[in-house]
């Protein structure tokens, strides 16, 4: 798939423009009771604010069974002109009740949903992979082979990236450039980041957030180190808003209002350009 599949149809990658590469407009999980992102009016306002500051695209990583509200994503994209990429896939087991109805046909479910979704979201475990992760990644690889859709991976605490690459890109033969490794800011280990980057995979740094603020201050060190090592084209930045409270503190507009200018300045300081 050379095009990017948005909720309104396929577009060339260059039309993404300024892109929030990992976020959530809608999200519901038993792991965060009472903190659901399910207010369509609030989501619309958030996207309008993002667009007013120059934001052009949002990749929503909310996967199957977690309240994606595809119809609302379509409405918001039409109302704002912002491209929205939706996801299929599965998160960790703790975000679901029973999966018995789809567990043995995950690849089939993912493939069907990729008629309107633009990526497959899966999840690793802390410093490794459990049986749930291996099963969902196997199904994701099968769906990728049929559709060409990229696979975005939640790395728990920013860990386990090498194990993910060993499975997805090694045994399951997914091309590394079709894999996005998320949450790397949560484990600011530059040596590990460089090892992951050398594979050819994309590296996603998301936040800042109240939940993971302890590592926010290392973000620019991590980005600068990867830029110096020649991996600027593999870097993605997103907001990863997962609760209603996070929508305003700091919200996805922070990416364009403060983080994007700071990142551009850092690249210029390194002689890379904007």
UniProtKB/TrEMBL annotation:
Family classification: Belongs to the metallo-dependent hydrolases superfamily. Phosphotriesterase family.
Protein name: Phosphotriesterase
Pfam families registered for this protein in UniProt: PTE
Annotated source species: Kibdelosporangium philippinense
Keyword tags: Hydrolase, Metal-binding
Domain of life: Bacteria
Region forming the signal peptide: none
InterPro entries on file: Metal_Hydrolase (IPR032466), Phosphotriesterase (IPR001559)
Modified-residue entries (N6-carboxylysine), positions: 121
